[in-house]
Amino acid sequence: GAPVIRSLRDLDDYEVAELVRKKTEACVTAIVFGDDEAQQGIAPSVVDADGNRVEQFEPGLIAYARGGKDIRFNQPSATGGYGEYKRASLHTISAGFRVPYELLTGDLSQVNYSSIRAGLVEFRRQ
């Protein structure tokens, strides 16, 4: 019942957050930095080629900080564990619905003929 619905929501929230993170990392390719003594503030302002402040990122963006003399390329982080988390969540969800994981997901990578047959026979008895 409710715990399974919570698990579904949590999995969806996690996937949305992961997608946003990946999209954000893909947008900024590089930022060009440099010393500009006239600039004030704790962080350099990022501007486009016309001198307008960049407020929205887009894929492949190379942003220039005023007085740019150094370039730093974005290095997307490699977050491990996404597949394992998703698989574990889907196992929890399938158990909550009392449906074999393989039927819920269509993932047959961890079964052989005998194990899937035994699981399906038991499922059909319910």
Textual characterization of the structure:
This protein has 126 residues and is of the alpha+beta class. The chain folds into two domains: 2-73, no CATH class; 82-125. Helix content is 48%, strand content 13%. It contains four helices and four strands, in the order αββββααα. The protein has helices spanning 2-27, 82-97, 101-105, 113-125, and strands at 28-33, 46-47, 61-65, 70-73. A four-stranded mixed beta sheet has the order 2-3-1-4. α1 (2-27) packs antiparallel against α2 (82-97). It is elongated and about 70 Å long. The chain starts with a helix and ends with a helix.
Attribute tags:
126 residues, alpha+beta, 2 domains, 4-stranded mixed β-sheet, 48% helix, elongated
What spatial form do the alpha-carbon principal axes imply? elongated
Q: Quote the distance from N terminus to C terminus.
A: 17 Å
How many beta-strand runs? Answer: 4
Radius of gyration: 24 Å
Biggest sheet record: 4 strands, mixed
Ranges where pLDDT stays below 50 over 5 or more residues in a row are 39-43
Q: What is the helical fraction, as a range of percent?
A: 40-55%
User: Structurally, how many domains make up the residues?
Assistant: 2
Give me the side-by-side strand order of the main sheet: 2-3-1-4
Strand content: 5-15%
Q: What secondary-structure arrangement, pairings included, does this model have?
A:
Elements: H1 2-27, E1 28-33, E2 46-47, E3 61-65, E4 70-73, H2 82-97, H3 101-105, H4 113-125
Parallel strand pairs: 1-3
Antiparallel strand pairs: 1-4, 2-3
Write a brief caption for the model:
The chain has 126 residues and is α+β, with helices and mostly antiparallel strands. Helix content is 48%, strand content 13%.
